[in-house]
Amino acid sequence: MPWMTRWPGAFPVFVAEATGGRFTDVDGIEYVDFCLGDTGAMTGHALPDVAEALHSRALRGVTTMLPNEDAIWVAEELGRRFGLPTWQFAMTATDANRFVLRFARHLTGRPKICVIDWCYHGTVDETLAIRGDDGRAVSRPGAIGPGFDPASTTRVVPFNDPVALDEALAHGDVACLLMEPALTNIGIVLPDPGYLDAVREVTRRHGVLLVIDETHTICAGPGGCTRAWGLEPDFLVIGKPIGGGMPAAAYGMSGDVAERLEDALAGDAVDVSGVGGTLAGNALALAAMRATLSSRLREDDFARMEPLAEAWTAGVRAGYEAHGLAWHVQRLGCRAEYWFCPPPRDGAMAAAAIDHELDAYMHLFALNRGILLTPFHNMALMSPFHDRSDVDRHTEIFAGAVASLVG
Ligand SMILES: Cc1ncc(COP(=O)(O)O)c(C=O)c1O
Fold it and tell me: CA 109, CA 127: separation in Å to the nearest integer?
């Protein structure tokens, strides 16, 4: 995969093993892991309770194409966290998003979807689009082999722009708006005050379903931004960390949506609905989700992780302010990110501000001193296993990187 090979430096680090908030490479060098598999291991690596659940389940059968009781427990727990009553399972967040888009088109009878400029929701064809100069969707740079003109499936609007959203939805051909409540895939871009309320008002007014993708924004708390900020999505997607590192994802829907979907879900031709997969909802993935959600990603974890992210943020700020640089550092829960410019308000500004050479320098400087950041931008995620000394080490290394750059 490109994201395994395109790290700064001549070659990627090969991992021997990872536990908690650290990993060791094949040369025996230990690293503090602030990348955490780009959120897939936000719970920390090699959790004994998840390992035991996987082992026990693997000895009792993985794939039967029938539900088991873990599905009930996990759905109830997700319902408690995110406030949506009905859930289905997928293996990845990409798949969960694909399935939700189909449901949304089915429910509304509308052909298009709307996404935010410079979003990322996995390798979902309709979402690999950015906003072109004339406002029409064009293929995202780097997305290979597009099978169709993205403008035929997708409308793209800037983040933090409810007026542009209103205009896009007024065409009457959009089934759903798929969005992260804060952008995390082009650096962290936070919503302006009132923006998400306006999004909900505009989507409701146009009969457009709101899909919130919490795959990364679960960093904001046990119920993601949805719970932290009182959002009211029609669908919610969550993947990556909910299996404690094991591939697993889920999507929830409101009671109203579930009721309206009942016929589609119960239909005779359900095996060719275009939704799901043979291994979706397998017992191993469910065991991993149950073990993870019963003891991880909980209030007490966040109470530990968020102050660490705050300390990381303060350390970075002190590092660039000491040299009078107009850089910026942004935090969302236990995730933080620095920019070489003032805070961008939307994805296009964020994309324009990227400096690949400077990114590579900062990453490599940290990596050579035993710290891994999330690649392609300058992001750090805290796990419950990190501690203040890990953060202080980053602060020191960051200060060193800036000093040698400026000095
Ligand atoms: C917000 C969001 N949704 C979905 C995905 C896709 O996740 P996966 O690659 O595990 O399918 C990602 C991946 O980075 C993501 O950031």
Answer: 19
213 CB near ligand 1 (under 6 Å): yes
pLDDT of residue 263: 80
Burial 202-216 (b: 16+ CB within 10 A, else e): bbeebebbbbbbbbb
Token pair listed for 360: 């590579």
* Ligand 1 atom with least separation from CA of 237: 3
Q: Where are the beta strands (DSSP E) in 239-340?
A: 249-253, 328-332, 335-339
Tens of pLDDT, residues 101-156: 999 999 999 999 999 999 999 999 999 999 999 999 999 999 999 999 999 999 99
Amino acid letter, residue 360? A
| Beta strand 249-253 pairing with 235-238 | antiparallel
Distance CA 13, CA 89 (A): 33
Give the predicted TM-score (pTM) of the model.
0.98
How far does residue 402's CA lie from ligand 1's centre (Å)? 31
Distance 306 CA to ligand 1 centre (A): 22
- CA dist 237 to 88, 141, 240, Å? 10, 25, 10
**How many angstroms separate the CA atoms of 137 and 97, rounded?**
19
Work out the mean pLDDT of the chain and round it to a whole number: 96
**Placement of tokens 């094991």 in the chain:** 246
In the block, residue with structure tokens 């060098």? 29
Q: Which domains can be identified in the chain, with CATH numbers?
A: 2-46+298-406 (3.90.1150.10), 48-295 (3.40.640.10)
- What is the average pLDDT across 195-223? 98
* CA-to-CA separations, 291 to 57, 70, 130, 242, 273, in angstroms, rounded: 11, 10, 38, 9, 30
Q: What's the first-to-final CA gap in the chain, in angstroms?
A: 37
Nearest ligand 1 atom, CA 95: 11
What does DSSP assign to residue 193?
A: T
Query: Confidence class of residue 210 from pLDDT cuts 50, 70 and 90?
Result: very high
